[in-house]
Amino acid sequence: MTQTLPAPAATAPRLTESRKAAVAAAVTVVLWSSAFVAIRDVGHTLSAAPLALIRLAVASLALTVLVVATRGRRVVPVRLSRRTLGLIAACGVLWLAGYTVALNAGEQHVDAGTAALLVNVAPLLIAFGAGLFLGEGFPRALIAGSLVALGGVAVISLGSTGDRDWLGVALCLLAAVLYTAGALIRRSCCASPTG
C-alpha cells in the first residue's frame, strides 16, 4: 500500500524592505500623477479652495489610519523649539494650503499635462535652494536626475491639448515656488528639530 503525501502548501513570498519600498514608490507615482487629471476634471465642479480642503481631508484621514495602526509602537518624544513649531506651521501654510490652492486654481486655466510640467520645475528649484540656502551643494547626480525627471514630464506633456493661458501658467509656477518653499522649510526642520 502506497500513501501519497500532500504537497506542502505554497507560501506567499514575503515582501522584503526593498520590495515594500518599490511598491510604495509605484503607488505614490500612480496616485500623484493621476491627481493632475483628477484636479482638472473636478475643477469645473469645485473651486480651488474647497477642492484643496477635500484633498487635505483625504490625506488627513489616511495619516490618521496610519497613526492608529502604529499606535502600539514605541515612539520617542522630541521636544520641539518654538522656532521649529513656527517653521512647521509655515510649511503647512505654504505647502499644504498655498501649493494645493494655487495648483487647483491653475488647473482651471491650463490642461493637466501643462500643469504637471510647470509644477515639476519644483525639484530643480528644491535642488538649487538646498544647495544655496541649506549648504547641501550641487552634486552632479542630483542635477542630472532633476533634469531627466523634468525631461520625462516634458515628453508626457507633448500630448497635452495645449489648453493654457497666462493666468494658469502663473498659478502653476506659483504652486511650484510654494512647494519648493515648503520642502526647504521641512528639510530645515528635519535637520535640527530642537534648535
What is the radius of gyration? 21 Å
Task: Provide the β-strand percentage band.
Answer: under 5%
Q: Can you write the helix and strand succession as a string?
A: HHHHHHH
The low-confidence runs, each spanning 5 or more residues with pLDDT under 50, are: none
Kindly report the average pLDDT value: 82
The N- and C-terminal alpha carbons lie at a distance of: 78 Å
Tell me the number of helical segments per DSSP (H or I, 4 or more residues long).
Answer: 7
Structural class comes to mainly alpha
Outline? globular
Largest beta-sheet characterization: none
The overall strand count is 0
* Share of helix, binned: over 70%
Overview of the molecule:
This protein has 195 residues and is an all-alpha fold. The protein is 70% helix and 0% strand. The chain contains seven helices and no strands. It has helices at 17-42, 48-69, 82-106, 112-119, 122-133, 140-157, 166-191. Helix 1 crosses helix 4 (112-119), helix 3 packs antiparallel against helix 7 (166-191) and helix 4 runs antiparallel to helix 6. The protein is globular. The termini are far apart. The mean pLDDT is 82.
Describe the secondary structure blueprint for this structure.
Layout: H1 17-42, H2 48-69, H3 82-106, H4 112-119, H5 122-133, H6 140-157, H7 166-191
